[in-house]
Amino acid sequence: MLKILAPADHASPLCDGVSRRNFLKIGGLGSIGLSLPKLLALESQAGIGSSHKSVILIYLVGGPPHQDMFDLKPDAPREIAGPHKPIGTNVPGIEICELFPRMAKMMDKFTVIRSLVGAQAGHDAAQCYTGHVPTGVAPPGGWPQFGSVVGRLQGAVDPAVPPFVSMCYDCTHGPYNEPGPGMLGSAHSAFRHTGPSRGDLTLQGITYDRLADRARLLSSIDRFRRDVDNSGRMEGMDAFTQQAMGVLTSSKLADALDLSKEDPRIVARYGMGDTVKRIDENGAPRVPQSFLTARRLVEAGARVVTVNYSKWDWHGGPGNDIFSREREDFPIFDQGITALIEDLHQRGMDKDCTVLVWGEFGRTPIISKQVGRDHWPRVAMALLAGGGMPNGQVIGSTDRLGGEADSRPVTFPEVFATLYRNLGIDVNTATVTDNKGRPHYLVENGAQPIRELI
């Protein structure tokens, strides 16, 4: 909690000449002798904040069709291959769907995992957010999602920006939604751009919705800052005190969420979406601008940003023919994801920011009579980029029908171990504690980072 102490007697200065109303109290730090300026100074001395590693995790709601996206089987029987053709990319030997022409031109910046195994069979996003099978044995309180763990272990890069921000929209099918902080407790929940926790960011009664209004924000703390600025004392304070004052007046998070502050040409590059219309009523809206907002949040200081995107559960039937849906969805996704990766490279963020795209399982090799593909947990795909990884490669392969991992099976815990490594967290030593005081390693079965990406 942030407080500005302002006693009734404004004529009672402290010994340094600054009135009590200008004293900052940040939670309980004052009780242990650590003011925010001192804390920021200590962090600087320790090198904290000098390297901002981050992850953008994009969940494709409902399970994307791996064999129609990045693992096409043109020589398979017609009832398996589908109508789309593979095209070459700027990496010799790698082919992807013809509906991803932008990605094909910059495949050297992506890595495709074609042999993701160990998925569960139901529509549950938990495994994509935690790395743990939702039906497995969990500690008291439940497994926390990835962003909650990172926030717990690494804290905030910038005191004005939460370490974990969720751009996910609420889905009417409950298991599609993020599982939450689990055993770590609500203190490590994501800050959400929608829903009840829009009020998570509060300063003197000013909520997130009003933070964007600079006039209202300044009316809450105007006297505090003006007293200092007009006296000229701001210039005499050390840099960390100025940074602490900046926290109180910061609208950094609100600005990151406000795309009107972005170059319109960049916004246009990502493509347009609709935050109201749902492709399927229980999925997420198709909003590629969420990718842009995720980048802006990382720039502002977030360590982990989660995004849920569209609805990929294409069983077929009237109005849900899988190949018509792919012809509609794939180009929009192609534009949005390539704009994000291009953006990260142009801004010099590609070494520090890892992007992961996946869903809860793959789809059946055989096309159904309803012209759809059903749930298929035996093998799935993942798409990665950035993170300073040696991208421009394909990891693993499937059999001739795209139904089983044929080489180099990769597990969900291995993917999460890679994300933790890219953030500077050692999965061999780092633990989190459940609500009974027992420590737990971050990934199961001693999983290690994917060796091809180190």
Care to give the gist of this entry?
The protein is α/β, with parallel strands linked by helices and 454 residues long. It contains 15 helices and 19 strands.
Would you mind describing this structure in some detail?
This protein has 15 helices and 19 strands. It is an alpha/beta fold and 454 residues long. 46% of the residues are buried. Mean pLDDT is 84; it is low at 1-31, 197-208 and 231-249. The chain is 30% helix and 16% strand. It has two domains: 1-34 and 213-248, no CATH class; 49-209 and 251-453, Alkaline Phosphatase, subunit A. Helix 1 packs across helix 10 (239-249). The strands form six sheets. Strands 3, 6, 7, 8, 9, 10, 13, 14 and 17 form a nine-stranded mixed sheet that branches. A two-stranded antiparallel ribbon has the order 1-2. It holds the Pfam family DUF1501.
Reconstruct the topology from this structure.
Blueprint: E1 2-4, E2 24-26, H1 36-45, E3 54-60, H2 66-69, H3 78-81, E4 86-88, E5 95-97, H4 101-104, E6 110-117, H5 126-130, H6 146-154, E7 164-166, E8 191-192, H7 208-211, H8 214-231, H9 233-236, H10 239-249, H11 252-257, H12 264-270, H13 289-300, E9 304-309, H14 322-346, E10 353-358, E11 362-363, E12 375-376, E13 380-386, E14 393-395, E15 397-398, E16 405-407, E17 410-411, H15 412-422, E18 431-433, E19 439-441
Parallel strand pairs: 3-9, 3-10, 6-14, 6-17, 7-8, 7-9
Antiparallel strand pairs: 1-2, 4-5, 6-13, 10-13, 11-12, 15-16, 18-19
Helix pairs in contact: 1-10, 13-14
Pfam families: DUF1501
Organism: Prosthecobacter fluviatilis
InterPro entries: Alkaline_phosphatase_core_sf, DUF1501, TAT_signal
